[in-house]
Amino acid sequence: MTSANRQKKEIKVAEITKNFESATAIVLVNYTGLTVKKQQELKKMLKAINASMFVAKNNLMQIAGNNAKLPSAAFTDEVLAGPTALVITKEDPIAPLQVLAKFAKENEIPQFKVGIIEGTFYDKSELITLASLPSKEILFGQVVGAIAAPIYGLVNTMQANLQKLLYILDTKAKQKA
Questions:
Q1: How far is it, in rounded angstroms, from Cα 55 to Cα 60?
Q2: pLDDT tens-digit readout, 52-90
Q3: pLDDT tens-digit profile of 80-118?
Q4: Residue 9, burial from CB neighbour count under 10 angstroms (0-12, 13-18, 19+)
Q5: How far is Cα 68 from Cα 15, in angstroms, rounded to an integer?
Q6: How buried is 84 (Cβ within 10 angstroms: 0-12 exposed, 13-18 middle, 19+ buried)?
Q7: How far apart are CA 168 and CA 174, in angstroms?
Q8: Pair 42, 53: CB distance under 8 Å
């Protein structure tokens, strides 16, 4: 290997390592059969949620994963067998899973391999389960709704009691008049 080629590989490993260290989610997918047009479409969908997809040599991903001190189960020879693309985000870790799952449902490609979400390793079946979860915003809305529901019920009950009191007072006032 020439020193120029080695230097390029070292730069690429450093770049991947930096991406790994700052990511909230890293998903490895098998993209076999994905046409260039479909790949561009998927990248555009991922970009809309501030995620990116790229391909690197499997051995470079393995070195970068070790450098970033990520779970070694994500970068085994078995996982990295065949074409592997990386999907990385620094924001909502579930959003890329949802985009990938929706895209895969429509196109049957790509297929999840493994992922690392906020430092925890997940296998294919766990990623599919996570992809079916609602987004953080929806979950936050559900929590706020669950907390607010009893308060609304209390307010409505108190309002109804006040209306009954006003009705009784109004009736009594008319009787005296």
A1: 10
A2: 999 988 889 999 999 999 998 888 888 888 889 999 999
A3: 888 899 999 999 888 899 999 999 888 888 889 999 999
A4: middle
A5: 11
A6: buried
A7: 10
A8: yes
